[in-house]
Design the sequence.
C-alpha cells in the first residue's frame, strides 16, 4: 500500500529503497505491534515474569541475528540505533592513540566522519584506498595500505552510490594474514546478499534494520568476533552489576547503556523472519531484474549518463544517473512533482565517490529498487527520465 501523489493522483512510485525500504511488509508491522503489546516492558530490568520474558525475547533476537550474519556468539550481538551508531561504537572503542586505519573512497559519511574526527583529535591516521572504474576495491590495494600500526580495515559491503558489492571474502583473507581486524558496513547489503562473518574472517559487522531487513528505523547494531576487544565509550544502566560504579565489561552489556529499543528489536526480528521466508537470493534476483530493466531503458536515452552500471554482476539493486545540463536536485524534484516518482538526488552522504566519478558538486540521481517494485514502476521511471532529458 502506498500513498497517492497529490499532483498526479496516482500511487507514489517509490525508488528510494537504499535510503529506507518502503512500504514495510504488513505482517512485520502487525507482528511488531501485537508482540510489543504483549511484552512491551523493560527487558532485563525486573524479576517479574513479563520482564523475564521480554529479556528472553531480546536474547532470541540476538541468536537470530548472529546466525543471519554467520556468527556463533550471540552474546556479541550489540543493539544500537542504526549502522552509523554501530560504526561509531566500534571505531571509537577500538582505536588507541597512534593507530592507523585503512578504509576506502567508497565509504559513506558514517565511516568518513568518525575517521575524520579521530584524526582531527590527534588519535589516528588513516588512508583511503581508491576504487576502480567499475566501482570495486582491489584487495591487493588494501594489503599495500596496511602498516605496522594499522588497527583495523573498514569497508562497506555494498556502495550506496554505485551498488557494487565488494570482495569481502578476499579482503578478509588479506586482513587475517596480517592479523588486522576487518570491520564491514552492511547497510546496503544486509537482507539481499548473504554474509558469512566467521568464514570470511570478519571481525565486526555493522548493520541497520530499516533498509533491506524490512524493519523499522531506530534499530541496528554490531556483530563482533570473539577476539575483538572494543572498549566502552558510553556508560550507564545495564540491569547487571548495579552496585558497581564501573560499567560492566561483560558482552553484550559492555557496549549497551540504558533501556533497549524493544519495539525496534521486535521489528528487526520480524524483518529477519520475513526476508528469510522470501529467500535472500530470491529477493536479490528480483530486484536485479528490475534494475537491469531500468539500466537498459536509461542506456538508450540521449543526455543520460549512468555510473558503473555496464555490468550488473556483483551489484545490489541501485544505480546512479545524471542528466546532461540539469542538476541532480532539479531532476529529483521534477521526478517527484511531475511524475510522482521518489528517488534520492545529491551526494548520498558519500562525497568522495562523487568526487571520483566526476559528479561534484551536484551529485547524481539514485534509483534503488525494493521487493515491492514492479516492472511498471521501472517503465514509468524510464519514460519520466526520457521526458526530462528531452530524449
Sequence:
Amino acid at each position: 500500500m502506498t500513498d497517492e501523489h497529490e499532483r498526479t493522483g496516482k500511487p507514489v512510485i517509490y525508488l528510494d529503497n537504499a535510503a529506507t525500504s518502503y512500504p514495510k511488509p504488513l505482517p512485520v508491522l502487525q507482528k511488531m505491534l501485537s508482540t510489543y503489546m504483549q511484552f512491551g516492558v523493560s527487558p532485563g530490568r525486573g524479576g517479574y515474569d513479563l520482564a523475564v520474558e521480554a529479556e528472553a525475547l531480546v536474547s532470541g533476537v540476538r541468536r537470530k541475528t548472529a546466525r543471519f550474519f554467520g556468527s556463533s556468539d550471540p552474546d556479541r550481538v550489540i543493539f544500537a540505533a542504526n549502522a552509523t551508531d554501530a560504526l561509531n561504537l566500534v571505531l571509537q572503542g577500538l582505536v588507541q592513540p597512534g593507530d592507523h586505519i585503512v578504509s576506502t573512497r567508497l565509504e559513506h559519511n558514517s565511516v568518513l566522519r568518525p575517521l575524520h574526527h579521530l584524526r582531527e583529535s590527534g588519535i589516528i591516521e588513516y588512508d583511503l584506498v581508491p576504487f576502480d572504474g567499475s566501482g570495486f576495491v582491489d584487495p591487493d590495494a588494501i594489503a599495500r595500505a596496511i602498516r605496522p600500526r594499522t588497527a583495523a580495515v573498514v569497508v562497506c559491503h555494498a556502495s550506496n552510490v554505485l551498488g557494487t558489492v565488494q570482495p569481502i571474502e578476499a579482503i578478509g583473507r588479506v586482513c587475517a594474514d596480517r592479523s588486522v581486524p576487518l570491520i564491514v558496513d552492511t547497510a546496503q547489503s544486509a537482507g539481499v546478499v548473504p554474509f558469512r562473518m566467521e568464514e570470511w574472517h570478519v571481525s565486526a559487522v555493522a548493520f541497520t534494520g530499516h533498509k533491506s531487513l524490512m524493519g523499522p528505523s531506530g534499530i541496528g547494531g554490531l556483530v563482533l568476533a570473539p577476539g575483538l576487544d572494543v572498549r566502552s565509550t558510553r556508560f550507564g544502566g545495564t540491569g547487571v552489576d548495579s552496585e558497581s560504579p564501573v560499567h560492566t565489561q561483560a558482552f553484550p552489556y559492555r557496549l549497551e547503556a540504558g533501556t533497549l529499543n524493544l519495539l525496534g528489536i521486535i521489528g528487526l526480528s520480524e524483518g529477519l523472519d520475513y526476508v528469510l521466508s522470501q529467500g535472500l537470493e530470491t529477493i536479490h534476483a528480483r530486484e536485479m531484474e528490475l534494475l537491469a530493466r531500468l539500466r537498459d531503458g536509461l542506456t538508450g536515452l540521449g543526455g543520460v549518463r549512468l555510473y558503473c552500471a555496464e555490468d550488473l554482476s556483483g551489484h545490489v539493486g541501485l544505480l546512479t544517473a545524471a542528466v546532461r545540463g540539469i542538476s541532480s536536485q532539479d531532476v529529483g524534484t521534477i521526478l517527484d512533482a511531475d511524475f510522482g516518482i521518489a528517488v534520492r538526488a545529491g551526494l548520498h552522504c558519500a562525497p568522495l565517490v562523487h568526487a571520483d566519478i566526476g559528479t561534484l558538486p551536484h551529485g547524481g540521481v539514485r534509483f534503488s529498487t525494493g521487493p515491492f517494485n514492479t516492472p511498471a514502476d521501472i517503465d514509468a521511471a524510464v519514460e519520466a527520465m526520457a521526458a526530462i532529458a528531452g530524449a
Notes: The chain has two domains: 13-25+279-389, 27-277.
